[in-house]
Amino acid sequence: MSTPARPVTAVQVTDAVLAGSWVIDLRARGAFAAAHVPGTVSIEYDDRFATQVGWLVPWGDDIVLLTDTPEVLEPALRQLAALGIDDVGTHLLGADDATATAGASSLSAQYRRADWAAFRDASRIGAVTRRRPVVVDVRQLDEWRDGHLPGALHLPLHELELSIHRLPPGELWVYCRSGYRAGIAASLLHRAGRHVVHLDDRWDRVGELHIEVVPAAAA
Questions:
Q1: How many CB atoms lie within 10 A of CB 45?
Q2: Cβ(203)–Cβ(179) under 8 Å?
Q3: pTM for the full predicted model
Q4: Do the domains 6-99 and 112-215 sit in the same CATH topology, yes or no?
Q5: What is the assigned CATH class of domain 6-99?
Q6: How far is CA 14 from the centre of its chain?
């Protein structure tokens, strides 16, 4: 059975992370990228929430939900209960707790978000400097086969946690179809100590911006 939501500080959240809990932040992925407690994972609440938790969190692991919007807790818990996950901690993190220590590396963290236009510009610079962005595609195999970026590394989101060690060193740009799964992936990579850029943009924008894609026939 889930525990009643209670206010919690960033220090207490850190303690839960260090104790081995999956502390899942339900806030919007942009808010998470701007400021979050190190070790927490971003799964923005919507109707896909429980599916992603079911894919990512090993059965039986301790789960704590974190949000600054108490209204999302009840529907989030209902989604998890439908999967048979009902022993969940819930905590309310105030806006001040989420951001007040943004300058203190022990309590707060952030990573960059970018759109496809920014990626295009980075790729052009990389073509000159011979340091092209390393890109990770976290979509499913059928999406990958429909077309992907040249040289992209394919690691579906549900396989990422156990495959981070396979990724090359350096900055990683992460994308999916809409930015939602890439936001989860970016938080997992950041939790693992990687320097990450979350490509928070729609895949169909790639064509609009004339970014090169390996087409379906060649994928």
A1: 21
A2: no
A3: 0.90
A4: yes
A5: alpha beta
A6: 18
Output the CATH code of domain 112-215: 3.40.250.10
Domain boundaries along the sequence of the chain: 6-99, 112-215
Q: Cα separation of 202 and 115, whole Å? A: 8
Q: Can you spell out the DSSP letters for the chain?
A: -PPPPEE--HHHHHHHHHTT-EEEE-S-HHHHHHSB-TT-EE---STTHHHHHHHHSPTT--EEEEES-GGGHHHHHHHHHHTT---EEEEE--HHHHHTTTT-TTT-B--EEE-HHHHHHHHHHHHHHT-PPEEEE-S-HHHHHTEE-TT-EE--HHHHTTTGGGSPSS-EEEE-SSSHHHHHHHHHHHHTT--EEEE-S-TTHHHHTT---EETTT-
Task: Return the closest-CA partner of residue 37 out of 54, 57, 22, 58.
Answer: 22
Amino acid 106 reads S
Comparing CA positions, the residue from 44, 214, 56 lying closest to residue 137 is 214
Q: What is the pLDDT along the chain (219 residues), one digit of tens a residue?
A: 555 667 777 788 889 999 999 999 999 999 999 999 999 999 999 999 999 999 999 999 999 999 988 899 999 999 999 999 988 887 776 544 444 333 333 447 999 999 999 999 999 887 656 678 899 999 999 999 999 999 999 999 999 999 999 999 999 999 999 999 999 999 999 999 999 999 999 999 999 999 999 998 655
What's phi and psi for 6, nearest 5 deg?
A: -145, 155
